[in-house]
Design a protein that fits this description.
- This protein is α/β, with parallel strands linked by helices and 900 residues long.
- It is built from 30 helices and 31 strands.
- Strands 20, 21, 22, 23, 24, 27, 28, 29, 30 and 31 form a ten-stranded mixed sheet that branches. A six-stranded mixed sheet has the order 2-1-3-4-5-6, covered by helices on one side.
- Strand 3, helix 5 (125-135) and strand 4 form a beta-alpha-beta unit.
Length: 900
């Protein structure tokens, strides 16, 4: 049976109809480049990596990128991904009685062995319940039986997981690279032994770093519920630390999303932890000690990852990238390699004190985005309170370097509501923003500098010196936001978040087990995506607290004594609690600590010996050897999957790179027209997502694309008319410009090998530089329409015969547009009793009629169930509409169109 007449399974048809009615269907289709799919019959365990937020956020998370290949590197485990569906998709799943399933194999979550949640933000708690409910998994751990999966969680939020503990079987505390394999080994043995659920809980809880909330007694301590050990499981549960993270090379074949995600680039972990010691920052404490990756390994991983993904941007990521010992030589080496290919870099979380002229110059060599600095506080007094290790001169110097390097937009991140904050501190952050804007006007002559001032509200977090300090009151936070708004002048833009969500985050961050009932109540009332302003419902949460008889203020407000027991004391972060209390005392008198390191240890934890003379010291500040050959495989055993081929053995020097880039302007340029298909679930790719997918495939195939010039270079590629989301196509076209001649059969094979399933190139042909572009020459599109059972083609044929009497009307933004059918419906021809072809006019001045509008005119509501395939496009050649590959194949004579 030819591919264009092959029927689709009823199950898949139903799912595609669901996708056609939701926002961003690419979130749910799977099949991305570098996706790993295994036959579940060949593995012992299945593991769902669950992220309780939308796809775009989850796919950007570094931890998710680490765990996916870590688990799938095991032959006995199949790890698959699942994300929280947006409300429109969740509602559709419920209407159609479809359970939430994984992306890779559409396996329902309820049939997996383990469902593991990554908890990054307290405001995703109701999304955890949403995903469990959609999967048909009992919400509470106590309600699950032997046939239900184990529900586990990890991530920074678990350092106080008590508000959500009743819904979790296990909590993973600390680094997962060693902990997770131990858990899986033991679970596999228990599964083979058919151990009942209760036995599995007790056995797995004995693994160091695993917390099983149901195995601990609860005690009331002054109105706060405290978990305590009773001998069934270790108490406290100690955090697991991987001191030598080089043993687990960062993955270089990350999954490449179809659609744009939040951090849509290659992101490589430079180091874990941060040595600065900001007292509000939970990550700075729970990821101690700071551990650097080998710069040679990082360089190899970046190169292989850019090759295997096709991204034209990479990020060197950490909590404080500027503190990485070899950041400058590493960045110079990578940019010397990648600048001629128009591959750019971004550096995450740069401490202003680490910004240098050299770093600014390297980052802007290809393209620039906004430049971000986080002073956090507006006065030196308050920066000392939070131990920011940053003064105003350093802040202004970093901004000056940015302006001189060509940046026009500076983004500033502050907090309001910090402990001891006064109105003078609030005024200080506005004054600092104005001073930076004035600096920009003096420095960036001839340009218009802009400053964005973002102010979030302080939330006390577990395992920080401020864990005992209450939040600022809501009315005071809103007053401070109003004070900032009133003082901001032209050139500075103020952005802020709603304080109500911050209040709830603070309740959870210092909450106890009693809050599980509130979270479940709020979920039953309709709460989900509480971190999104358009979905957060303050009244709903107030009702949930009221109905459960719990006062949220007792958790968010008020200072606690440093010697009292805390709900999260059941977990030992390995950062000494007494030392944290000493840090709070030091903060309240505006005392500071220097940046910690192997030669300046502050003795915060028992692992300090590793920092001053162990693995941490030995792996800190290692040099980069630019002469080393790029490895085609990771340097040590681990989850990293290498790219197909190695890169050049050495980087170009800066002079060689500049010379090569300059010479590109003198090279000849060759123009090619490409015909390709978009089928299967990739019919739900929007035009911009399709563009990104094709460009990445070209880069993976190592085509030397021509780029535009300027601050934000783009590949010279032109696509034909955009295809509506939800329509397959056998005949899409694009033009590309290359610096080299392309050998057609070999290049087509290389591109197809680099494309995700559902996209394929069928032809490539060199065309003249003066050939009219697709957007200006395509004038018709031919579609094949397959009708549902019981619907005949007679309505289509009748509409074409009487097309002079019909018109399509469109309402948009209060304006009405009418399309006379004779001008647009060029041809209708029956294929068989249940399908027909139609040719529609495309292009010209103004809008064109859409195929769904014509089908709706022909068939009414039934048109929603018609499967449409775009078979080909046609461009105007003399008095004929011909194939865009410039073959002499007429589709419909122009004379017929005029006669119609």
């Amino acid at each position: 049976m030819p591919p264009d007449t092959e029927p689709i399974r009823d199950e898949e048809t139903a799912f595609r109809e669901i996708l056609s009615g939701v926002q961003k269907p690419t979130r749910y289709i799977g099949g991305e480049r570098n996706e790993i799919v295994k036959d579940h019959r060949s593995v012992d365990l299945t593991f769902a990596l669950a992220f309780p937020d939308v796809y775009e956020i989850g796919m950007s998370h570094l931890g998710f990128r680490i765990l996916y290949p870590l688990l799938n590197a095991r032959e006995d485990v199949a790890a698959e991904r699942v994300f929280c569906p947006w409300p429109d998709m969740a509602d559709a799943l419920r209407r159609h009685h479809r359970p939430l399933a994984t992306l890779e194999t559409s396996t329902p979550l309820a049939t997996m062995d383990v469902v593991g949640f990554s908890l990054q933000y307290e405001m995703t708690f109701t999304n955890v319940l949403e995903m469990l409910d959609l999967a048909g998994i009992p919400l509470r751990a106590s309600q699950r039986g032997d046939g239900d999966p184990l529900v586990v969680a990890g991530g920074p939020v678990v350092f106080n997981c008590e508000p959500i503990a009743d819904f979790l079987d296990f909590v993973f505390v600390g680094d997962a690279e060693e902990l997770l394999p131990e858990f899986l080994d033991k679970l596999k043995d228990l599964k083979r032994a058919r151990a009942p659920r209760a036995n599995r809980l007790c056995e797995l809880a004995q693994i160091p770093g695993i917390y099983a909330p149901s195995l601990y007694q609860l005690e009331d301590d002054g109105g706060i519920v405290i978990p305590v050990g009773d001998g069934r499981a270790p108490y406290p549960v100690k955090r697991r630390i991987v001191y030598d993270i080089d043993r687990f090379p960062f993955p270089d074949r990350i999954v490449v999303p179809h659609g744009e995600i939040v951090h849509d680039r290659v992101s490589i972990e430079l180091m874990r932890g941060c040595p600065v010691g900001c007292r509000f920052c939970q990550a700075g404490y729970i990821y101690r000690p700071t551990r650097e990756r080998d710069p040679n390994q990082v360089r190899d991983t970046v190169i292989r990852s850019v090759r295997s993904t096709g991204y034209d941007q990479f990020s060197l990521a950490s909590l404080n990238t500027g503190e990485y010992g070899a950041v400058q030589p590493l960045l110079l080496d990578l940019m010397n390699r990648f600048e001629p290919e128009s591959v750019s870099v971004s550096l995450s979380s740069m401490h202003a004190s680490t910004m240098t002229e050299e770093l600014a110059r390297e980052v802007r060599r290809v393209r620039k985005s906004g430049f971000t600095i986080a002073p956090e506080a507006g006065t030196q007094r308050l920066r000392n309170v939070i131990n920011k290790n940053l003064n105003e001169d350093q802040i202004l110097n970093a901004c000056r370097l940015a302006f001189e390097a060509g940046w026009d937009l500076i983004k500033l991140y502050f907090m309001i509501g910090l402990p001891t904050e006064t109105d003078a501190d609030v005024d200080g952050l506005v004054d600092l923003a104005h001073e930076i804007h004035a600096l920009g006007r003096r420095t960036a002559k001839g340009r218009r500098p802009e400053v964005t001032l973002s102010a979030s509200s302080f939330v006390p977090k577990a395992v920080t010196p401020f864990q005992w300090v209450g939040q600022d009151r809501l009315d005071n936070l809103y007053r401070k936001q109003g004070r900032i708004s009133a003082r901001v002048r032209r050139g500075v833009r103020f952005k802020h978040h709603e304080c109500d969500t911050t209040f709830l985050e603070g309740v959870f961050s210092r909450g106890d087990r009693r809050l599980s009932a509130v979270i479940e109540r709020a979920f039953r009332l309709g709460a989900r995506f509480d971190g999104w302003a358009e979905h957060f419902n303050r009244d709903l949460w107030q009702r949930a607290f009221r109905e459960e008889g719990i006062d949220p203020d007792r958790y968010a407000y008020g200072d606690w004594a440093t010697d009292r027991r805390l709900p999260w004391d059941v977990l030992d972060s390995l950062v000494n609690k007494k030392w944290l209390a000493l840090e709070l005392k030091r903060a309240l008198v505006e005392g500071t600590l220097s940046i910690c390191g192997p030669t300046d240890c502050h003795g915060c934890a028992p692992f300090a010996k590793e920092c001053v003379k162990g693995v941490v010291k030995e792996t800190t500040g290692r040099p980069l050897d630019s002469g080393l050959t790029i490895l085609a495989t990771p340097a040590a055993p681990g989850p990293g999957l290498p790219a197909r081929a190695a890169d050049a053995p050495r980087a170009l020097t800066a002079e060689e790179g500049a010379s090569l880039k300059a010479s590109l302007g003198e090279l000849p340029r060759y123009r090619y027209r490409v015909r390709f298909e978009k089928t299967g679930r990739l019919q739900f790719l929007g035009h911009l997502d399709l563009t990104r997918a094709m460009l990445r495939a070209f880069r993976r195939a190592r085509i030397a694309l021509v780029y535009s010039q300027g601050f934000n270079p783009k590949p010279r590629v032109q696509f034909g008319p955009a295809l509506a989301v939800g329509i397959e196509s056998r005949g899409e076209y694009l033009d590309l410009w290359s610096f080299t001649r392309l050998d057609e059969p070999a290049v087509v094979d290389a591109i197809n090998e680099a494309l995700p399933r559902g996209l394929s190139v069928s032809a490539l042909r060199e065309i003249g530089s003066d050939t009219p572009g697709l957007s200006e020459s395509v004038r018709a599109a031919r579609y094949l329409a397959r009708l549902p059972q019981g619907v005949s083609t007679s309505a289509a044929l009748a509409t074409f015969s009487a097309r002079a009497a019909h018109a399509v009307s469109r309402q948009k933004n209060g304006k009405s547009t009418t399309f006379a059918l004779p001008d647009w419906l060029l041809d209708v021809a029956e294929v068989d009793a249940s399908s027909f072809r139609m040719t529609l006019g495309v292009g010209g001045e103004g809008a064109s009629v859409r195929p769904d509008e014509v089908l709706s005119l022909m068939f009414g509501d039934v048109s929603k169930h018609i499967r449409l395939v775009r078979e080909d496009l046609a461009l105007l050649h003399g008095d004929q509409l011909v194939n865009p590959m410039l073959a002499d194949v007429a589709l419909v004579p122009v004379a017929e169109r005029a006669a119609g």
